Amino acid sequence: MPSSFAAASPRHLIIPLLCFLSAIPSPAVAAAPPRGYYINCGATKEESIDGIPWIPDEGFVNGGNVSKINAPGILPLLSTLRYFPDPKARKNCFVIQVSKGSKYIVRTTYFYGGFDGGKEPPVFDQIIDGTRWSTVDTTQNYAAGLTTYYEIIVAAQGKTLSVCLAKNVNSSSGSSPFISGLEVVSLENSMYNSTDFSDYALSTIARHRFGHDGSAISYPDDPFNRYWQSFIDANPVVECHSNISSPEFWNFPPPAALMNALTTSRGKELHVNWPSFDLPDTSYYIALYFQDNRTPSPFSWRVFDIEVNDKAFYKGLNVSAEGVMVYGSQWPLSGKTKIKMIPASDSPVGPVINAGEIFQIIPLGGKTLTRDVIAMENIARSFTNPPPDWKGDPCLPKENSWTGVTCDVNGSFARVAVLNLTNYGIAGVLSDSMGNLTAISNIWLSGNKLTGEIPEMGNLNELASLRLADNQFTGPIPSFLAKLPKIQEIFLQNNNLSGPVPESLKNRSGIDLRIPQGNQVEI
C-alpha cells in the first residue's frame, strides 16, 4: 500500500497515511547512518540528505533516461528521477549486492513532477526479485502535491537483490515507469522474525506512534530509518516518564516512538480504530507496543486483554514500565480495523497503547534456479549489447522474463527452456556457461553478430534445436553435437566455421543439419 510525504517544504505536511519529516541531526550527536544503500535516482554525485549519504544510481541499473524536476522548494531527493521509455523492455531492474539470508527493508520513492510533459503519472508494477510486489499509482498523491513511497521487508535469497519496474495492463501507451529514490537497509536478525521469509515478504501498510499529532520520525530516532507517523484520536494521551529499549522488543521500535500513549480511565475499555483506512481482505502481520507511562516502581503495571475486530489477540497482557510487544504473524483483516483493550478487574489503571505496525503478508513468487541465473548472467556479460531488460530474475515473474527467454516453472523454481534472440543484432561471444542451462530445449541465435568458437554444450540433454546461422562463428564444428540425445535440428550456415564435419554427426539420422553454405568446411 502506498504512503506519502510532502514534496516541498515539510511545514505543509498534512496527509492521511505514512509521512516523512526528518530533522537534520547536529554533527556532534549524529548517529551512524543506517547500514545499506541509499540511491538517489538520476543524481550525478553523492549528497548528504538529513545526515544520510545518498549515492547516484550509476552501476545499479542498465538503461533508462534521467530527468530533472524543477519545482520551488523541492526536496533534494526528488529533484531528479530515472525513467524507462523503452516499450520493448519487459522490466527495468536495479540490482543491489546483499548478503544471502540477511533481512532488508526496501523503500521505493516516487515523485512524478510532470517529467514527461503529461498531467498524470504513469501507472506500472514494481517487482522484487521474482515476485510482483505492488502496482505503483501515484496519481492521487501527486494531485495533492505529495510524494509516494512503498516499503517491503524481505530476506535476500542470493547475493543480489533486484528491484524492477514494469508496465502493466493499466499503463497507458507511451508512458514510462520512473523512480526517484531506492533504499535497501539492513535489519537485525531478530526483527519480524516470526515470518518465514523463505516463503513470504512483508509489505508495509501502517506504522504509527500513538498519542502524537506532530510530524513523523525516522533517522536518527530510528536507526533503520523506518518512518513512524503520528496517530491521535479522541482517547486521552499520556506521556511516558522513561525511555525504554526492552529486550522483548525484537523489532527495535525507537524510544521516540513510545514516549506518548493512548489510554483511558480505570475500569474502561480502550478502543482504537487503526489504521484509519480500509484494508483488503488478506493476511497481515500485526505488532503492537506497550509501556506503562508512570515512573518505574513495583506499582507501575496494568493488565488487560487485547482483541482485534472482536477476536482474541492476546489474553492477560501485563504492561510495566519496561515495555512489552505482542504480535500476530498471520492475522486475517478486511475493511476497518478496531483494536480493543479490556482491563482486568484488579488492574489499578486503564489500558494503554504506544505504537503499532501492520504489514501485508506477500507470498513470494518463486525464483529461477541459481545455476540458471549464474549461467544467464554470464551469457549477458559475454554479449556486447544484451537486451536492456537482462537484469534481475531471468524467468520471473513469468510475464516479465528477460527478452527472448522462455521458462518452465516447477514448484518454487523456474528453469530456462528457450533462448530466442533471432535477428536481434547481438554482438560478442557465446559464453561457456551456455552449457550449464541443462533444461534448455531451443537455442535460437541466428541473424546476429556473434564471434568466436561454439562453446561446449555436451551437457544439454534436453536440447532439440540449435540455430546459430548467419553469425560470425569461427573454429571447428564441435563433435559434441552428435551426442546430444534429443537434438533434431542444427543450423550453422553462413558463419566462418572450418575443418571437417564430424563423422558421428554426418552419420546421425533424424537431424535437420544445415552447415555448408558460407563456411569453409569439409563435407
What labels describe this entry?
7-stranded mixed beta sheet; Jelly Rolls; 38 strands; repeat; Leucine-rich repeat, LRR (right-handed beta-alpha superhelix); mainly beta; glycoprotein; 523 residues; Receptor-like protein kinase; 3 helices
Notes on the structure:
The chain is mainly β and 523 residues long. It folds into three domains: 185 residues, Sandwich (Jelly Rolls); 160 residues, Jelly Rolls (Sandwich); 156 residues, Leucine-rich repeat, LRR (right-handed beta-alpha superhelix) (Alpha-Beta Horseshoe), CATH 3.80.10. It is built from three helices and 38 strands. A hairpin with a 2-residue loop joins strand 3 and strand 4. About 4% of the residues have low confidence. It comes from Platanthera zijinensis.
Poorly predicted runs: 8-29
Give the integer mean of the pLDDT values.
90
Question: Pairing-aware structural class of the strands and helices?
Answer: mainly beta
Major sheet details: 12 strands, mixed
The CATH topology annotation of the largest domain reads as Jelly Rolls
Number-wise, the strands total 38
Percent of residues in beta strands: 35-45%
Overall geometry: elongated
Going by CATH, what is the homologous superfamily of the largest domain?
Galactose-binding lectin
Q: Name the helicity range.
A: under 10%
Report the end-to-end length measured between terminal Cα atoms.
65 Å
Count of all domains: 3
- Give the C-alpha Rg: 28 Å
CATH class (first level) name of the largest domain: Mainly Beta
Figure out the total of helices: 3
State the CATH architecture of the largest domain: Sandwich
Membrane topology: Single-pass membrane protein
GO molecular function: kinase activity
Domain Malectin-like: 39-361
Pfam families: LRR_1, Malectin_like
